[in-house]
Write a structure and sequence with these properties.
This protein is mostly beta strands. The chain contains 4 helices and 9 strands. The chain has 2 domains: about 90 residues, 2-Layer Sandwich (Alpha-Beta Plaits), CATH 3.30.70.140; about 50 residues, Roll (SH3 type barrels), CATH 2.30.30.20. It binds zinc ion.
Amino acid sequence: MSEEQLVRKIKDGTVLDHVEQGRALQVLEALSIDGKDGNIVTVAMNVPSKKIGKKDIIKIGNRFLKSEETNRIALISSRATVNLIRNYQVIEKRKIETPNTFVDVFKCPNPTCISNSNEPIRPIIDVLRKSPPLLRCRYCSRLLSPNEVI
Ligand SMILES: [Zn+2]
């Protein structure tokens, strides 16, 4: 079975290819995709890849994710590629870029941070440096590495 055939082609929607092996579910969580809207979501994990050994692939039917959305996965799978598909054709291909801010993607690991209280606060993590990534919680100013928030 070829790489192409392994996952059914979608007519319209977004394909996230070259997702870091084993991280597909984290990616879906960061994108707030839970399948509740009724669209077909296909997840393939540990797919052999010539480029990166093994990879995950996610196909999201009938949704065209914007850069602001797909950039939310920058720390989880920076090498992923985004393909927008219309009528079985790739109409746009793009890479993931690290945004300046992650809103509502990661929780601050500081238990006494106000963003972890019962207040209705959306966690905001600012990116101070992109490579290697250095992050800071906007509320408690704690400096964070990607490993602490993922
Ligand atoms: Zn904090």
